[in-house]
Amino acid sequence: MEKYGVNELRKMFLEFFESKGHLAMKSFSLIPHNDKSLLLINSGMAPLKPYFTGQEIPPRRRVTTCQKCIRTGDIENIGKTARHGTFFEMLGNFSFGDYFKHEAIAWSWEFLTQVVGLDPNRLYPSIYQDDDEAFDIWNKEIGIPAGRIFRFGKEDNFWEHGSGPCGPCSEIYYDRGEKYGCGKPGCTVGCECDRYMEVWNNVFSQFNNDGEGHYTDLIQKNIDTGMGLERLAVVVQDVDSIFDVDTIQALRNKVCEISGKEYDKDHETDVSIRLITDHIRSSTFMISDGIMPSNEGRGYVLRRIIRRAARHGRLLGIDGLFLARLSASVIEGSKDGYPELEEKKRFHLQRSEQRGETQFNKTIDQGLRILSELEEKMQSEGKKVLDGQDAFKLYDTYGFPLDLTKEILEEKGYGIDEDGFHAAMEEQRERARSSREVTNYMGADATVYDEIDPSVTTEFTGYDHMEDTSKVTVLTTETEIAESLMEGQKGTIFVEKTPFYATMGGQEGDCGIIKGANGVFEVEDTIKLRGGKYGHVGVMKSGMISNGEKVTLQVNEEARKNTEKNHSATHLLQKALKTVLGAHVEQKGSLVTPTRLRFDFVHFQAMTPEELEKVENLVNEKIQEQIPVVTDIMDTEEAKKSGAMALFGEKYGEKVRVVSMGEFSKEFCGGTHVKNTAEIGLFKLVSEAGIAAGVRRIEALTGPSVTAYYKAQEEKNT
Ligand code: ATP
Ligand code: MG
After folding, report:
1. Based on the number of CB atoms within 10 Å of its own CB, is 612 exposed (0-12), middle (13-18) or buried (19 or more)?
2. What stretches of 637-682 adopt beta strand conformation (E)?
3. By three-state DSSP, how is residue 428 classified?
4. Is this prediction's pTM over 0.85?
C-alpha cells in the first residue's frame, strides 16, 4: 500500500467526492458563525447546520469539506491515546436531502479500499442495532460477511442532540493488529483501546425526534459523515499514533530538537512531547482564526492550551520562548490546506503567542512558588484540599488556569475546592460588571483609564461635522498615561472636542485618523468612558503626537455614512416590526456597524416568511418615500407624551434627543443618522432566529452591503 502523506490524503478525499458530484467547500473558521450553542467548531457538520435544518439553502445538495476542528472535551486524552488531538481535521461528505445510505456506504468503502488501498480484511463496519437497512447494504451490496458487522446500541451508534433531526450511524473501524491491543479478553471492535481504531463515522439523519421520544421520518433525509484525517493517515502510513504521521512527526521532531529530548525513550517525557505537539497545533490554528488569549470563552480555551503547553515545556526543561518558534513549523506543515495560516502569520500569530508566552514565563515562576508555599501550608495543617479562594487567586493574579493548578496538585495527591473557586470567580464577575458601566476597549480591563484626571471631559461635535481641530488633553499607551505616543505604539488619545462618535446605544464607534504636526494616529475605535470622556483607541502610524498638541481629527466618512444608513434603517425596522407583528415588539438590543445591523426584540415565535416579507417591504417603502430625518432636543416628559419610543427601563435625564422620520418613526436616540431615508438606498433582511426564550434576532443589510450580498449570491449560483 502506498504511504500517502496527510496533505495528499486531504486532496484525494476532496477530489474523490468531487468526482461524485460534490461541491468542495473550504474549511470554515473555528469560530462558529451565528451559533451560540457552540464555543468552537468541533465537526465537519457543525458549520453546515443551517443547511441541514433548512434555515439556509446550500450552494449544492452534495458538499464535501475538510474542516478544522477543536475538541477540548478530549483534552485529558491528549498524549495518552494514539488517536486523539484537541485539534484535528475532519474529512466529510454531506447530502442535504439528496443521496442516502446506499451511496454513502458504497462511497466510503470505495474510497478506503480502492482509492487509498486499505486491506478490506482489516476493516469492520458497525451499525445501529435496529438498522437492518444498513446491515443489508453492508452485507448484500458490499459483501461483508454478517459476522464482521457489529451492531451497537444507542449511546454509540445513534446520533441525537435533544429534539430535532437525528438518526443511526455506521462507523468503520480498522484493525491495526494485535500489538496495539489491550490484551484483555473480549477486546474487539468497539474496545476503548487503540487496536480497532474508528476512522469514519457515517450519520444517517432520517428521523425527527419531537422531544418526547416519538420518532417520525424526515422528509428530507441527510447524510453527514466524518473521518479524522490524522487517523486515516495513521492507518495508511502504518504508524503508532497521530503523532507519527508525516506532518505531525515533523513538528514533534522540532519539539524534541528544542528540548534536547529523545522521543520513545521515557513514557512521561513522551506524553509531554505529544501534548506540546498537539497544543501548538490547536493554538496556532485558533490564533490564525482571530482568537486571542483572554479570560473568557474561546480566548480562555486558547490561554489554557498555551499555558498547558508552556508548562509541559518547563517539565521538559525548556527555558525561554519556544511556542512561537514551533508555530512556524505548524504553518509550514499545514499551509497547503490552510493558506490563511501563512497570510495571518506576519500580522498577529507570532506576536500574540510570544506575548502570551513572555507573560507566562514571568508569572509561572511566581505562581509555582506560591503554589508550593500553599502546599507546605496544607501539609502543616493536615489539609488535603486547596482553598477555592487560593485557587482563584492563582488564576486571577498569576494566570493559572484551574485545570493546570489541579494537574500540578493531583500529581502530589492534593485536591481543590472547585465550588469555592467558582464562587470566588462569580463574585469577581459581579464586581467587574458593576464597575464596568462604561464600555472599555475589547472588554479589556480599563485600569489605565481609571488613572485619568476626572475633570477631563470631551465635547462631541460629530452630529454635523466629520472633521474638527482640537487640543490633546491626555495620551495613554496600553498600560500607562504617557507624554507622547511614538510610531508603532498602541494607545488612546483624548482631546477637548471631537467629531468621532463613541460606541453607544448599539452604534459602533467611529474610525478614522488624527493628524498632528509630526505624526499620524490611526483611530480603530472610539469609546466613551466615565465622566463623558471620549477615547480614540488605535495605533501611531508614523511620527509622534504629544500631549497639549493641536491636532486635526478626521472621521472615516465612508464607514460613518454606512453606519448611519444601518442605524436609520434600524429605526424603520423597529417600527415595521411593531406594525406587522404587534405592539408587544420591544427592543432588547441592537448593533449597528458600517457593514450590517442586528436587532433583538421581544416576540414569541419564529416569524413566518410572509411576515418577513411584509417587514422588508415596509422598510423599503419608507426608504422610497424619501422622508426627511429630523432630530430635536426635547423635555423628556414632553417627548414621552409625543409618543416617541423609549427603551423600556432606561433612565433618561431632563432633556432627550428625539429622532423622527415623518409620522412613521419617532425614537429617543443619541446616535447619528442619514438626513433623508432615501440615503439608505436598499434594505435586505438576511436572517431571523431565536436567541433566548421570547427573544428573536434579525440581521439585515443596507445600501452597498445589499448590492454586495446579491453579487455574492449571483456568483454562488453561476
Ligand atoms: P472516539 O470515540 O475515538 O473519540 P468519536 O466517536 O468521538 O471518536 P466522532 O464524533 O464520530 O468520533 O467523529 C468523527 C471522526 O472524527 C472519528 O471517526 C474520528 O476519525 C475523528 N475524531 C474524533 N475525535 C477526534 C480527536 N479528538 N482527534 C482526532 N480525530 C478525531
Ligand atoms: Mg470522542
Report:
1. middle
2. 655-661, 665-668
3. helix
4. no
Minimal-distance CA residue to ligand 1 atom 20: 228
- Which residues lie below 8 Å from residue 562, measured CB to CB, with a gap of 6+? 594, 595, 702, 703, 704, 705
Give the residues across from 64 on adjacent strands.
Answer: 24, 93
What residue has cell string 464607534? Answer: 509
Strands laid side by side in the 597-602 sheet: 587-592, 597-602, 695-702, 683-692
Tell me the C-alpha distance between 606 and 390, whole Å.
Answer: 47
d(CA 87, CA 166): 26
- Average pLDDT estimate for 25-49: 87
CB 563 within 8 A of CB 672: yes
| CB distance 157 to ligand 1 below 6 Å | no
By CB atoms closer than 10 A (0-12, 13-18, 19+), residue 391 is buried
Q: So what's the pLDDT on residue 351?
A: 58
Q: What's the mean pLDDT when you consider all of the chain?
A: 88
Q: What are phi and psi of 195, to 5 degrees?
A: -75, -60
Q: Which of 46, 11, 14 is nearest to 30 (CA)?
A: 46
For the record, the C-alpha cell of 26 comes out as: 473550504
Smallest CA-to-CA distance from 47 within 68, 78, 77 is with 68
**Closest residue by Cα to residue 327 from 304, 354, 358:** 354
pLDDT beyond 70 at 399:
no
More confident of the two residues 621 and 344: 621
Mean pLDDT of 615-633: 96
The residue among 656 and 300 whose pLDDT is bigger is 656
pLDDT in the model for residue 115: 97
- Which SS3 state, helix, strand or coil, does residue 595 take? coil
With bands split at pLDDT 50, 70 and 90, how would you rate the model's confidence at 434?
very low
Q: For ligand 1, atom 21, which residue shows the shortest CA distance?
A: 228
Higher-pLDDT residue of 684 and 318 is 684
Burial class (CB in 10 A: 0-12, 13-18, 19+), 101: buried
Beta carbons within 10 angstroms of residue 147's beta carbon: 6
DSSP category for residue 78:
T
pLDDT in tens, 61-89: 999 999 999 998 888 889 888 899 999 99
Contact of 356 with 324, CB cutoff 8 Å:
no
How far apart CA 255 and CA 329 sit, in angstroms, is 10
Q: State whether the beta carbon of 74 lies less than 6 angstroms from ligand 1.
A: yes
Pocket probe for ligand 1: among 42, 66, 84, 278, the residue whose CB has the most ligand atoms within 8 Å is 84
DSSP 451: T
d(CA 32, CA 336): 23
Can you list the positions of beta strands (E) in 74-189? 87-96, 123-128, 150-152, 158-159, 164-175
